Amino acid sequence: MQAVLVLFALAGGALLAAQGPIFSQSATYLGGPLQAALFAFAVALAALSVLSVLTGIGLPRVSGMVAMPRWIWAGGLIGMAMVLLSIHAIPKIGVATFVAAVVCGQLAAALAYDHFGAFGMELRRLSLRDLLGAALLLGGLFLIAGRHRG
């Protein structure tokens, strides 16, 4: 089962890499980055709403939204910020550099979150192997980001 999840995660990563260029192109048609982000989230909201109703799962409980810690609301803001960042950054630095930088940032934060059990997650202590893997990934970022300088 874990191997299947890793394969799905790889496919998800490929789709995430496509999002930035799609958002950047939509900005040229829709009037700018904010309009493109608004359109993207409107499409996502509509699709999720239909899926929730058709599957019988239903819409989010208002009582749950009111009761949950306020920091959880940051997830939506982070998504919005990443969409806007991709729209601005990808035309200037390219898809590969953008994705490599995002992945490096994600991994560095993920290692810290695991190490400290952040956000209520299971504690998973950082190892030398983890640090070496992160260093290699960061080296890859520098190779990819530097490819257009020479």
Q: What is the makeup of the main sheet?
A: none
General form: globular
The total beta strand count reads 0
Number of helices: 6
N-to-C terminal Cα separation, in Å?
44 Å
**Helix percent band:** over 70%
Q: Radius of gyration from the CA trace? A: 18 Å
Which secondary-structure class do the elements indicate?
Answer: mainly alpha
How many structurally independent domains?
Answer: 2
Description:
The protein has 150 residues and is mostly helical. 78% of the residues lie in helices and 0% in strands. It has helices spanning 2-30, 33-54, 62-67, 74-93, 95-116, 128-145. Helix 1 packs across helix 4 (74-93) and helix 5 packs antiparallel against helix 6 (128-145). The N and C termini lie far apart (44 Å).
List the helices and strands and how they pair.
Blueprint: H1 2-30, H2 33-54, H3 62-67, H4 74-93, H5 95-116, H6 128-145
Features:
150 residues; mainly alpha; 2 domains; 6 helices; 78% helix; globular
Give a brief rundown of this model.
This protein is mainly α. It has two domains: 1-90, no CATH class; 94-150, no CATH class. It has six helices and no strands.
